[in-house]
Amino acid sequence: MTAKEMFRKLGYKKISMEFMGDELRKIKYENISNKDRIEFYTENQHFIEINGNGIYVEELQAINQQCKELDWIEENG
Fold first, then answer.
1. pTM for the whole thing?
2. d(Cα 31, Cα 9) in Å, to the nearest integer?
3. Relative to the CA of 59, which of 24, 32, 39, 46 has its CA 20 to 30 Å away?
4. SS3 of 1, please?
5. CA-CA distance, 71 to 75, in Å (whole number)?
6. How is 12-57 classified by DSSP, letter by letter?
7. pLDDT one-digit tens code per residue, 17-54
8. What are the distances in angstroms from CA 28 to CA 16, 20, 47?
9. Residue 21, Cα to own-chain centre: how many angstroms?
């Protein structure tokens, strides 16, 4: 299952992908019901969760999948 599918299952929608030229710079997901956002910044390989509600295990799994798709972490075995 892709990160986008995992986030969608949790109520998130990919709201934007920002590019500089051909290079992906930022991906934003927003939870439609509670307005939580998770943003991924490719320039320095970090993400933030906005609204301070913390991250549930299912969200962490989707975040890890997105990091794998961005080649920030390696797939196990």
1. 0.88
2. 10
3. 24
4. coil
5. 9
6. EEEEEEEEETTEEEEEEEEETTT--EEEEETTTTEEEEESS----H
7. 999 999 999 999 999 888 899 999 999 999 999 987 78
8. 5, 15, 10
9. 21
Q: In one letter, which amino acid is 23?
A: E
Asked if 16 and 71 count as a contact pair (C-beta separation under 8 A), the reply is: no
Checking 11-20 for CB contacts under 8 A at 24+ apart, the result is 12/36, 12/38, 12/62
Q: Give me the pLDDT at residue 14, please.
A: 93
Residue type, 73: I
Other C-beta atoms within 10 Å of 26: how many? 15
> In sequence order, which residues have a C-beta less than 8 Å from that of residue 77 and are 6 or more positions away?
none
